[in-house]
Amino acid sequence: MALVFYGHSALKVLLRSNRVMWVFWVLTLGLFFAGFVLRAFNISLGTRVELYLTGFLFAVTFGLLLLSFFLILEDVVRLFSWIRAKLKSMLGTPHHTRIDRRRFISATAVTVGALPFSSLVIGMGARNKYTLHTYDLVFDRLPSAFDGYTIVQISDLHLGSFASLDEFQPGLDLINEQQSDLLLFTGDMVNNKSSEARPYIDALAALQAKDGKFAVLGNHDYGSYNRDFDEQMAKDDVQNLLNIQRQMGFSTLNNQSVKISRGEAFFNLVGVENWGSGRFLKAGDLKKATSQIDDSVFTLLMSHDPSHWEAEVLNHEKKIDLCLSGHTHGFQFGVEIAGYKWSPIQYRYPQWAGMYEKNNHLLNVNRGFGFLGYPGRFGIWPEITRIGLKSSGFSSVE
Prior knowledge:
There is one protein chain. The chain is α/β, with parallel strands linked by helices. It has 2 domains: 2-123, no CATH class; 131-390, Purple Acid Phosphatase, chain A, domain 2 (4-Layer Sandwich), CATH 3.60.21. The protein has 9 helices and 14 strands. The chain has helices spanning 2-15, 18-40, 47-90, 102-123, 169-177, 201-205, 231-247, 286-289, 307-313, and strands at residues 131-138, 149-154, 182-185, 213-215, 250-252, 256-262, 265-271, 299-302, 322-325, 335-337, 340-342, 354-358, 361-365, 383-390. The chain has a 6-stranded mixed β-sheet with strand order 1-14-2-3-4-5. The protein has a 6-stranded mixed β-sheet with strand order 6-7-8-9-13-12. Strand 8 (299-302), helix 9 and strand 9 form a beta-alpha-beta unit. Helix 1 packs antiparallel against helix 2, helix 1 (2-15) packs across helix 3 (47-90) and helix 2 packs across helix 3 (47-90). The relative contact order is 0.14. Residues 1-8, 10-14 and 394-398 have low confidence and may be disordered.
């Protein structure tokens, strides 16, 4: 309510129109009330309607937050000016308080709030702007038989967020167009439960890769975000998801490794369960996952959460040449222009989107294929990563 009050105050100073103010109150309170009632009484209006309702709620809330923050700072300044004036008055010192800047401050606050609001509204129509990111990486430990080998990485499908297959079929088509040797999925197939993936089994089974498709689990794949599940139900749901992924053609690596072979040559593909810093699940066991690998050749690790890289992977006893992660979604909001990139998520994750190098180790953080919470993207588009491997010495990459 405080956010709506500050929005009302700013618009009232600027517009001075009762009709506009009525529209503002009806729209904002109507959105918040609708969201509360639907959640409280478990009312469903259909996935598509609920997606857009959630998006508008997110946009309005974020816009009002920035607007209110700006006006709160102004109110603090005005409070100290008022106190100063009172003190000078008590001391008999003349003081003139200027309050005519309120209109300017209100206009600035509304502008500041309108920018993220409009961006987030526009972003709801651009959430399926699938973008191909391509990297050519050179490794001295990669057998020459794999020179020119191609890998496609996808991550964070979040199938429970989509209203229908039509929304993301163009993304699946773009994946198949790459004709990759290997397709790797780095976690978060669903939002809350395995049943969200069932409608899309055939569509994902149609994805092709010459040497197969492999996956790992993300933090949303363990049933722990579903309030209706007890511990046993969550465990059963994980097994259901693993079965669904098998039907899709994915081999899920749960703290396991396999050899990807070309004749007698091979490299190590390792997959760990979710391991995330802070409050996130730490089911990943890197030591177990790498126990059977040949440490003399190229090793590729799939680990959903990029925080795992600095926490355990970089200093692991066996060298991980390339780690593939996802998880961050790039916050689904940010700026990427001419090599410059920024998103609020970077203040939580040092490695949040794209390729990173440290001590001759590489990490790619995929920006995600789907979306979660806010049903849109602005500036940080859904990603399909194509990685070309070359064998003739090490080369660093941004």
